[in-house]
Design goal:
This protein is an alpha+beta fold. The protein has 13 helices and 29 strands. The relative contact order is 0.07.
């Protein structure tokens, strides 16, 4: 078939139409146009299978780099990456054949305008990071990750297309540690997009731009509800503070574990719009009471006019895609109940029974459908923290999970995996720093043919004589050395003398370390301490910073609306584990802000019991010493007041803790 090809200013291909034959492939329909080429659905007539063709002008400046990248990407084996099947060219066109993803939709389409459940975001971005990390281990980077690049198949699998090739077509040539960091930044941006339905980077996507505070992307927890603490911290550190994970593998280690299958029924992070009228609504108060009300769009008796602040208003949160189940989170008050709407009553009884069994499995309650739904909504609100009863679950499972599910052992495991991945990264070299050709050892010189013949009798006798000479010399040296043993020592006194030497010993001073100068005791673990009405965790992803030896790395509490925690709790803290019961003579705190705090010691994390000391608003290095002997395995720093922070909220901050 004759064809005329041309390119526009972005080197996109023109003149390829449905029915055009490229080698063994028959073009069927165009999927999308990208810088440097076009992606088409096609049919492999030889193997009788559907494929996707990335078609490029053969003479374009970026085509050769893209074809080379595709050949190297074809050698990467990762289930999360779209497979490269073939690389070829014909006349004035070149192409890259990829696996066809029938029925797949983009990550951007799945996000829509409402965002995705937090645990589904964790699963998708974790799978993306795993696939890109596998490519990084082979010296390849993606460098062009966007919500449109990530594909979700009909059965929920995550696929990333365009490894190295999309960046090559766009002329991006970043390498080494900078490329590792760029891919990690893009994956964090994907997580932000899933949580908030907005895009935080400067690159162009189909999602709207993220809201900005002081020129930087606003943290997800300020935009959406039910954002887990670890994802919020990673997004804030990466997009606002310029730190965060160093590579895709580093990101995967920080957010692990995640479900390998899509999650259904989890709470979405972004609130539904005010004009939506869901069929069935669960009203959840800050105290945790949950009732079922009809979603008629009228006032249900819940006071929602107390404050216009994002943390105060009533939020409807859709539990599933069809909008039939929504959690309305209120800052307080009493929820009233009424019958569900006719639309809810008309549900398929079989579907209702399945839903009842799912919720009963997750919450371990044998209840009827209405009670189970209320329990699931109450569980989603059980992690209430923040001013005026801000209801945020730190971890949500299939129906609802809280941050209390993350034990101290899990935190330790995640930290160990992260360190292992970073250690592994230091042993690798990127594609840019690797030599262009393998260094092969020089060949051995050619030897004469007779070199392989067995030795003659005379040669064998000569070798035996040399070996015998070495044995005789070794024996002579051994005899001489043995005779000199003990000649320059007091061996006789040691073996036969009756003299004894008194060894003076001294007991360690009982007040050693009392002034904060002794050797610190080892800390094996730490965790945020947030007892009821808190959720049991307080920025647990940051707690290793308080014993890493670097005062510049800090742990902070969550943000509150007043110095006294907005009246929702008495305090919050952090607990360190010494591994076993120890005698405690002093506790040294590095306090960047003027919060009030009391330090307790005991056999468990507690905000009462044996007091080591307290500080009333001091800053800098503060040494607390008990008035009497104190022992314990756990040391808890219990903050009872907060200090204002730059974002208008109130937080307590701890830079370092040393127990002696």
């Amino acid at each position: 078939m004759a064809r005329q090809t041309s390119t526009d200013e972005r080197d996109s291909v023109h003149g390829v139409n449905p029915g055009t034959e490229l080698g063994r492939y028959t073009v069927e329909s165009r999927i999308e146009e990208i810088p440097g080429g076009e992606r088409w659905a096609a049919r492999d007539t030889t193997l009788d299978r559907d494929v996707t063709l990335l078609v490029m002008p053969a003479d374009a400046d970026t085509t050769a780099a893209a074809l080379d990248a595709a050949r190297r990407a074809a050698g990467v084996e990762a289930a999360q990456l779209v497979r490269i099947l073939d690389v070829g060219g014909e006349g004035d066109l070149a192409w890259i054949a990829e696996d066809a993803l029938d029925g797949a939709r983009t990550y951007a389409a799945a996000i829509g305008t409402d965002g995705l459940p937090a645990e589904e975001v964790r699963r998708i971005t974790g799978e993306v990071a795993t696939g890109v990390e596998a490519a990084r281990a082979r010296g390849l980077h993606h460098l062009a990750l966007t919500p449109e690049i990530v594909q979700l198949t009909s059965d929920g699998r995550v696929k990333v297309r365009g490894l190295a090739t999309t960046a090559a077509l766009a002329g991006i040539e970043t390498e080494g540690a900078e490329a590792d960091r760029d891919d990690a930044l893009s994956i964090v941006a994907l997580a932000y997009a899933g949580l908030t339905a907005t895009w935080p980077l400067e690159t162009t996507t189909t999602l709207p731009a993220a809201p900005r505070t002081h020129g930087r992307a606003t943290p997800p927890s300020h935009v959406a509800v039910a954002v887990p603490g670890d994802l919020d911290t990673i997004c804030r550190e990466t997009l606002t503070e310029g730190t965060g994970p160093d590579s895709p593998g580093d990101y995967a280690a920080q957010i692990a574990p995640w479900s390998r299958i899509p999650l259904a029924g989890a709470v979405r992070t972004s609130p539904t719009s005010a004009d939506e009228a869901p069929t069935e609504v669960f009203s959840v108060s800050a105290a945790g009471a949950a009732t079922t009300v009809a979603a008629t769009g009228t006032d249900t008796g819940t006071d929602t006019d107390t404050d216009e602040d994002a943390d105060q208003v009533t939020r409807p949160v859709t539990l599933d895609d069809d909008g039939r189940h929504t959690v309305v989170i209120t800052p307080g008050g009493r929820a009233t109940s009424s019958q569900t709407s006719p639309a809810a009553a008309s549900q398929d009884p079989t579907e209702g029974a399945d839903e009842e069994r799912d919720i009963a499995d997750d919450d371990h309650h044998d209840r009827k459908v209405g009670a189970s739904a209320a329990a699931a909504a109450a569980a989603a609100a059980a992690g209430a923290v923040g001013t005026g009863g801000k209801v945020i679950g730190d971890r949500l499972g299939k129906a609802a999970r809280t941050a209390g599910g993350r034990s101290k052992e899990a935190i330790h495991d995640v930290r160990a995996r992260r360190e292992a991945i970073r250690a592994d990264q230091r042993t690798r070299t990127s594609l840019g720093s690797a030599p262009a050709t393998a260094e092969i050892e020089s060949p051995a010189p050619l030897l004469p043919a007779e070199a392989g013949a067995p030795p003659s009798r005379g040669q064998a006798n000569l070798v035996m004589m040399i070996m015998a000479g070495f044995v005789v010399l070794a024996c002579l040296l051994g005899v001489f050395g043995t005779s000199r043993i003990g000649s320059s020592t007091d061996l006789g006194k040691i073996l036969g003398g009756d003299e004894t030497t008194a060894v003076q010993t001294s007991e360690p001073s009982s007040d050693a370390g009392g002034n904060g100068t002794g050797e610190p005791l080892g800390i094996i673990n730490a965790a945020g301490f947030d007892p009821p009405p808190g959720d049991g965790a307080e920025h647990n992803a940051e707690v290793p910073r308080v014993y890493d030896g670097d005062p510049s790395t800090i742990w902070t509490t969550e943000g509150y609306n007043s110095e006294s925690f907005g009246g929702v709790k008495q305090g919050v803290g952090i607990t360190v584990d010494l591994g076993q019961t120890q005698k405690i003579s002093s506790v040294t705190l590095d306090l960047p802000t003027t919060s009030r705090a009391t330090v307790y010691a005991g056999d468990q994390a507690t905000n009462s019991g044996t007091e080591v000391g307290k500080t009333e608003g001091r800053t800098g290095t503060v040494v607390l010493t008990p008035s009497s002997e104190v022992t314990g395995q756990f040391v808890t720093v219990w903050f009872t007041s907060l200090a204002p922070s730059d974002d208008g909220r109130y937080r307590a901050v701890l830079g370092e803790i040393a127990v002696r």
